[in-house]
Design brief:
Layout: E1 6-10, H1 21-29, E2 34-36, H2 40-43, H3 51-66, E3 72-77, H4 81-86, H5 93-96, E4 102-108, E5 131-134, E6 139-142, H6 146-150, H7 156-165, E7 169-170, H8 171-175, E8 190-195, H9 203-215, E9 220-225, H10 231-234, H11 236-253
Parallel strand pairs: 1-2, 1-3, 3-4, 4-8, 8-9
Antiparallel strand pairs: 5-6, 6-7
GO molecular function: hydrolase activity
Domain AB hydrolase-1: 7-241
Keywords: Hydrolase
Length: 260
């Protein structure tokens, strides 16, 4: 029996890699190797951290697995979808022909990267109402209550604990780096988990993103979950089932690689 693909987990802006722990614990018990990635832009506390730093952090984790012959599925949350998808700009067919390959993306309350466009560029150059660009500190500063924004469907105690774990988010990573952005979702199949009670990225916007990507030729399977922006914390069992179903589908399809 072929080995199960390795699962690479990419968090969103402000979020630490430990936000995946509930989910990875469930999936590890089911026999999956799980590799959470820490994004430099939200964990180093440095305003100089770039989008390219984030892309390279994800790519390094993926290459560690594919170079050892393992296939990979990348699970990404929120902003994390952008550096995750962009790794396929460089992980082309020659780079992985002798090893494993990226089979697909499992996206959670995320977006679809546009080649050549920064995160803020995709928003028209203007931050959403939930955060502002602090040009003095170089960080993206949350102005909305993070508890309400990200964790409203957790208990008050657990939500407060996660609010305390949020890091400083480099503004540079969100506003620059478009030259490193790549629409990797066009190269491999994707499953998308839309959070219907999301206060950070309304479900209507999530479904609109899915429609646009399908219209552009993406192979996107849409699922829904009754949760806020962080279902890996509030609905870990259901989110794990979504990941398992996505992985099974990707394995059946065999993945695709740019250039094939």
């Amino acid at each position: 029996m072929a080995s199960k693909p390795t699962l690479i987990f990419v968090p969103g802006a402000w979020f630490p890699a430990t936000a995946w722990t509930k989910l990875t614990t469930i999936l590890a018990t089911a026999g999956y190797k799980c590799v959470p990635v820490s994004l430099p832009s939200s964990t180093t506390g440095l305003p100089t951290a770039t989008f390219l730093d984030d892309v390279q952090a994800v790519a390094a984790a993926v290459r560690d697995e594919t170079s050892a012959g393992a296939d990979v599925v990348v699970i990404c949350h929120s902003y994390g979808g952008m550096p995750a998808q962009s790794i396929l700009m460089d992980l082309d067919k020659p780079a992985v022909a002798a090893g494993g390959r990226v089979l697909g993306f499992a996206m959670i309350a995320s977006g679809f990267t546009m080649t050549g466009m920064s995160f803020l560029g995709g928003l028209g150059g203007v931050p959403p109402p939930s955060w502002r660009a602090d040009m003095e500190t170089g960080f993206a500063e949350l102005v909305a209550d993070p508890m309400a924004l990200f964790f409203h469907d957790l208990s008050e105690a657990e939500g407060a604990e996660w609010v305390g774990k949020l890091g400083k988010q480099s503004l540079r990573a969100l506003s620059e780096g478009g030259e490193h952005a790549y629409a990797g979702w066009k190269d491999v199949p994707c499953w998308y988990l839309a959070a219907t009670e999301d206060q950070a990225l309304p479900v209507e916007a999530q479904k609109f993103f899915v429609k646009m990507s399908r219209d552009a030729g993406g192979d996107i399977t849409l699922k829904e979950i009754k949760s806020g922006h962080s279902p890996m914390l509030s609905r870990p069992e259901e989110t794990a089932e979504f990941v398992r179903e996505a992985v099974d589908d990707f394995v059946k399809k065999g993945g695709m690689v740019k250039g094939e």
